[in-house]
Every structure is written in structure tokens, then in C-alpha cells.
Amino acid sequence: MLRISMLLVVCVLLGEPSARADRYDLKSGGYVEGELIARPDDGSYVIKTPDGARLAFERADVVRVTVVDDAATEYARRSREMHDTIEAHRALADWCRTNKLDQQRDHHLQRVLQFDPNDEEARLGLGYQKRGGRWLNRAELMRVRGMELYEGKYRTSQEIVLLERAKQNEGAAQDWTVKLRLWRDWLDSRREDRVAEARLQIASLDDPLAAPSIVRLLEREQDEWVVRQYVAALGRLDHPSATQTLVRLALHDEDAEIREECRDLLTRNGRVASIYPFVQALKSKNNEIVNRAASALEVIGNPDAVSPLIDALVTTHRFRIEGNSDRISAGMSNGSGGLSFGGNGPKIISKDLRNPQVLRALTSLTHQSGLDYDETAWRDWFVNQQMSADINSRRDL
To answer: What is the tens place of the pLDDT at every residue in 235-274?
Structure first.
């Protein structure tokens, strides 16, 4: 049971009332505000309330102590004692600024303006600026600049439209996730009508906002038919995540048919594919990736790929030979290197590999044959072509 006892005050408790008034939440459900005067050895609390009463609580009766900021307590005392005059509010506003009580400061500056709407010091303190003889607050000033407060920040109307559209797109994408998961479950249903409906819905997907959800499902899909349907859907969707996924699969999927399908989809229906990711892949440590990238560049057909393809006709890769065996592990990285020995341990060898898909892509893009894997001959031919094109362009001027 809560026990509260009045204490006799000894000399150490005498003096001016403190500005501090911490909060003591009690086990009974109530609370007391006051200054902690003493903590005896038994852990109890001796508190002086703002009206001067002394109370004692056993340790078990206090469930939480919230320490109140001294400045806030002092402000409460000052605000109770102040007179409602413009001078008093201005003085307390200055005190609040010194003690970093911004909200309270603004309150008193607003009161100053109620006494004198033209008080320049109060206007400036509240962030007003004078424009055309009128005092404008921050919101009004930003509105003049064509900006509105949106989700805690001032933004242009165009930016707000884009953010709202992004919100709508995010909601639509979430809806697609729900639908696609439902259709995927239906594909495994024993009901033929649900299987047929799911196949129809997946095969007719044409909303670009569905692309991110399809990509997530594709990453963990094991069924070959479903994978192909998802890939086909991505080929129909004009969305960055769809294009990025087709590029990734064209380079890294283990299924040759999937890789071929992705290469074709990147240029189907008027889609203009970037050569950049495939040009970068020509520098891969993995020789297979180099050739897959070349195959994609051949399909894309952009002549800007000719120069990097020439550089990739023959690439150097490193292989690891395990111990005394003839087994080779292709760790492979581009760059020069010879034969590295480690006693009877693994050996690292470097080999120059010809890349047939690179040669095929070059031949297709340039309609030039007979140069084989001679990089120097290809480079000479390329420079001559560039010079001829430059001369012809000058003649046309």
C-alpha cells in the first residue's frame, strides 16, 4: 500500500524554493511533481512539491522518475509571474532564446505582435521578411517563390506532382505483387480453370509497373515454363528493372535458350538497347561472359561496339591447376602473366584465348572478313574507316 508521510524539515532543507520539478510516477497510478531533496539509505524518495509540501515515498512505490529540464521549470515559474505587457513578453522571449526554448519564444513573440503588429524585432524573430511593404512569414514567402510545404519540406509544384506520382506507382506496384503471387499459386492449383486463368493473366501482362514484382518472383522461380513467361513479360514492359534483368540474364543465365531469348527481347518492339553493360562485360574475368557479351552486341547491332570488340578478340585469363593433377579451375582474370609455381601445390597459369563470338560480332557489324583474330589488322582497318568517314563529312560541308 502506498505510504506517504509528511517530513519534518531540518536545516539542510531550508532555503529558497528550487526551480526544479521532476515527475515521479507512482505505483498507484498517479504522479507527483517536485524537487528531490534526499535519498536515504533505504532508497526512498524525499520530495518537495512546488507549493512547499514535503513528501516521502518508499522506493517500491515509485515506478518511474522523469527528470524535468531546469530551463523548462524556470520558464514555467517566470511565465506564471509575468505581467501581460509587451515589454514583459519581449523580455521573456529574449530569455527563451538564450535558454534554447524556441517554441516558447515564438509564443511570446506572437503575443508581442498582438500588441503591435508592426514590431520589426518580433517579425524578424519569427522569420518574417518584408516584401513590397508587406511582412511575409516563411510559408507565404515560399509560396511567392512557387513552393509549397509538402511532407515537411518546401517543394516546387512539379516536384510535388512527381512525388505524388511515385506514391501512386508504389501503390500500384504493391497491388501487382499481390496479384502475381495469387496467379503463381493458381498455377499449382488442382482446378484447371484457375490454372488457365493464371496462365492467361501472366501471358497478357502489359503494365510497366508490374516489372519490379515480376523481377522479384523471377529470382526464386524454379519452374521452367513460368520462368519463360516472366521473361517474355519483361520483354513487353518498358521499365528500367525489366531492361536490367534482361541484360543480367543474357549474360549470366545458365540456360542458353533463356540467354538467347533475352538478347532478342532487348531489341524487340522498337526497344533501343544500350551497349554499355555488354561492352563492360567484354572485360570480364570469365571468358564465357566475354563471348556472351559479344553475342548480345551482335544482336543489338550498334557500330559503336566495334572498337571495344576489337580489343576483346583475344583476352588473357588465369587458370588454377590443382596440385599434380591435370584439373584446371578457371578463376580467370584479364591481364598478362606467365606460369606461377608453388611447389607441389596449386599452379596459376595465364592463357590467351581467342573469342569466337567476338569475331562473329565484328564480322556481322563491319561486313569485313578475312582479318581473323589479328587485332593489329582490325585496328588498322578501323582507323582507316574513321579517317575515310572524316574526309567524307568534310566534303559534305
So the answer is: 999 899 999 999 999 999 999 999 999 999 999 877 888 9
Q: Would the CA dihedral through 44, 45, 46, 49 be positive or negative? A: negative
Backbone angles phi, psi at 233, to 5 degrees: -65, -45
Give the chain's domains with CATH numbers: 4-68 (2.30.30), 84-145 (no CATH)
pTM reported for the whole predicted model? 0.57
pLDDT tens for residues 109-164? Answer: 999 999 999 899 999 999 898 888 888 888 888 888 888 888 788 888 888 788 77
Average pLDDT for 173-195: 91
3-state secondary structure the chain: CCCEEECCCCHHHCCCCCCCCEEEEECCCCEEEEEEEECCCCCCEEEECCCCCEEEECHHHEEEEECCCHHHHHHHHHHHHCCCCHHHHHHHHHHHHHCCCHHHHHHHHHHHHHHCCCCHHHHHHCCCEEECCEEECHHHHHHHCCEEEECCEEEEHHHHHHHHHHHHHHHHHHHHHHHHHHHHHHHCCCCHHHHHHHHHHHHCCCCHHHHHHHHHHHHCCCCHHHHHHHHHHHHHCCCHHHHHHHHHHHHHCCCHHHHHHHHHHCCHHHCCCCCHHHHHHCCCCCHHHHHHHHHHHHHHCCHHHHHHHHHCCEEEEEEEECCCCCCEECCCCCCCCCEECECECCEEEEEEEECHHHHHHHHHHHCCCCCCCCHHHHHHHHHHHHHHHHHHHHHCC
